[in-house]
Design goal:
Blueprint lengths: L7 E2 L4 E5 L5 E6 L5 E8 L13 H8 L9 H9 L4 E6 L4 E8 L3 H13 L5 H19 L2 H14 L12 H6 L2 H11 L5 E7 L3 H10 L25 E5 L5 E8 L7 H13 L5 H9 L5 E8 L4 E9 L4 H18 L3 H18 L3 H13 L7 H9 L3 H11 L6 E6 L7
Parallel strand pairs: 3-7, 8-12
Antiparallel strand pairs: 1-2, 2-3, 4-6, 4-7, 5-6, 9-11, 9-12, 10-11
Amino acid sequence: MSGARPAVIADGGMRRTVLPNGLTVLSEHMPGVRSVALGAWVRAASLHEPPEKMGVSHMLEHMVFKGTANRSAHELALSLEVLGGSLDAYTAREHTSYQARVLDQHLSEASDVIADLVFRPSLRNADLALERKVVLEEISMVEDTPDDLVFELHNDVLWGDQPHGYAILGTRDTVRSLGVRDLRALHERAYHPGQMVVAAAGNVGHDQLLEVLERTGWMDVAGGDRTALPTVTPVPRSAESRHVTRDLSQTHIVFGSATVPYADPRRYTLSLVGMMLGGGMSSRLFQRVREELGLAYSVYTFQSFHLDAGVHGVYVATAPGTARAAADAIREELAVLARDGLDESALAAAKSQYKGQVVLSLEGVSSRMYRAAEVDLYGVPYRAMDEVLALVEAITLDDVAAVCGEFFGPDRQTVVSLGPGTEGAG
């Protein structure tokens, strides 16, 4: 490991090292557990794709599991499962991730398998012909699942033809047009240490992790170009309402608008307000729309934060005949929130709930792994749990009023409904 930059130790135990080939390694030791979560993030995903190659990042994520220089697809599937562990991957907007969770004694096996996947995939034409069918079935599954499809439709209306509005899976046309040459080009451009972050959490020491990575070949791979892949800063379109007609037994509705990037400190206030508005059985929307009016079984809020943008919103599914009433009730709650914010007692209750969720969410090795990776993926400082709790406790009524007034007004929301008829939620 000669030439590695010394590890930076943060309060709470997170450590970070940049290796000579550009690979960033982060870890957090969690005493008292017997497992490790290990993940590798590649800084290439749907935001970096031209429209004609939409879905190429997701297709490459699928294809690496079809075989590598060292393992067949079946051997990859067995590699960690026979040890009682798990191996998974996903493609998001800004990165593609490969992850394993194993007993601490099997960290080397997990590291070796993930290195095999990301650095040595076979990428054969015959495998692509088969996996293309699988991804097309995945697209069909989304189209047949209205509570998934309505989010895709809302994202498209909110962002339009900008990369934030692209379908991560791609379209049928783009998926059919992708070839092995496209996959190899993406792999060569981004699947190297200079564009990757590795994070681990659990019963693992940082020096131990570095030794395992060295032993399993991560330090032998050339670093490659570390220049960030280009993206386009998104500009949300003007708020509008749109209904998509579909023969369904329910109408599915999404309200939503752009908010702030991941690194913006208002993220905590937005998350707190969103939780209070629709984050559980005690939330305002659940109590009003479901318990008082009986208009829906499912109603909740959602939040997502990216490097250069964020989104918040509300989802509800209701009978077509009550779609307008459910949407009006949501608009009323949004209007009250935008006008009045929260009072002291509501803010205190929201803080208590939010802090409880923070603590509970960080008790697992996988969530700690994600938190470590976020330091480099989003350029945010590492915050120990007590520091996060202090930030939540410091949220003021003025902070809440500011985000409610700016982001939660009903006139600001793009509204997309999916269901029978031609009018939807109006």
